[in-house]
Amino acid sequence: MALETIQIESEAIENLKNYINDDFALVIEKIITSNGRVVVTGIGKSAIIASKIVATLNSTGTPAIFMHAADAIHGDLGILQKEDITICLSNSGSSPEIKVLTPMLKALGNCLIAMVGNTNSYLASQADYIINTTVEKEASPGNPAPTSSTTAQLVMGDAMAITLLQCRGFSTQDFAKYHPGGALGKQLYLKVEDLYKQNEVPSVSVTANLREVILEISSKRLGATAVLNNEKLAGIITDGDLRRMLQNQENYENLTAEKIMSPTPKTIQKDTLAVDALQIMRSNSITQLLVLDGEKYKGIIHLHDILKEGII
């Protein structure tokens, strides 16, 4: 039965291609040129789908608000503003609440779009535009519960949202503004300078001895230290550099930072995106980068700083 359910619903989705027509294009144009919000309403399972469509529209640049059809006929019609466009979801288009709500919406003068599974229904006859979500049958035996019909509404809502997104020229930067708390949003806005400042700033001079180098790396807990020559970056010494030095050297007394360091450290500018820093670390199999402001050394960003923010 599980496989049959998936098959029935996938066929319902596939059939939606036939309903991307002139009416669909007119609805998109109407929403794009509107000065109001998109108010999405429905009853029962359609109300749940309506709420999800609202969330998707808001997150992709189309201001939207949810209004439950049952609440609307008991006072929530006050949500509607003059320029708002209403999308009413109903598979049958003839439920009692929808029959009561529809003339009220018409009386307010708002544009009414019906997302409906029965294009001969009362709702469809009263709507200014129709988005067809007709399905051949529900997936549940005997059709007692909305399954294919609500899936079709959900997919059609996504189709509208993404079409509107493209028409508006909605960019990844816009997406980041609306999703600042998510991992994807952080990839689009979080910069190196937002992270490295929480760390210590390890550094030694080129003339520092081995003991000074080890103490600096150990005390700052970043696995590395910058090596400076008159405040200019000269190189980097990492835990790995120290281990290799110990394997290759027998006399440590006269070793200085300049003799231990790697003279061509991997660096990154402070205003670079953190996700780009992660990519550099991965491609070079390293766990830290020296942060620069122009040519001036500012600190270290560590792999753990980035992963802690959920950027992977």
Count of DSSP-assigned helices? 14
Percentage beta strand: 15-25%
Report the CATH superfamily of the largest domain.
Glucose-6-phosphate isomerase like protein, domain 1
Cα-to-Cα separation, first versus last residue? 38 Å
Structural class: alpha/beta
Quick one: CATH class of the largest domain? Answer: Alpha Beta
The appropriate CATH architecture of the largest domain is: 3-Layer(aba) Sandwich
Order of helices and strands: HHEHEHEHEHEHHHEHEEHHEHEEH
Radius of gyration: 30 Å
Low-confidence stretches: none
Strand order of the largest sheet: 2-1-3-4-5
What's the number of domains? 2
Q: CATH topology of the largest domain, anyone?
A: Rossmann fold
Mean pLDDT over the full residue set: 91
Q: Summarize the main sheet.
A: 5 strands, parallel
Could you characterize what this model shows?
It is a single chain. The chain is α/β, with parallel strands linked by helices. It folds into 2 domains: 2-170, 3-Layer(aba) Sandwich (Rossmann fold); 192-307, Roll (CBS-domain), CATH 3.10.580. 45% of the residues lie in helices and 19% in strands. It is built from 14 helices and 11 strands. The strands form 3 sheets. The chain has a 5-stranded parallel β-sheet, sandwiched between helices. A 3-stranded mixed β-sheet has the order 6-7-8. The protein has a 3-stranded mixed β-sheet with strand order 9-10-11. A hairpin with a 2-residue loop joins β10 and β11. The chain starts with a helix and ends in a 5-residue tail after the last helix.
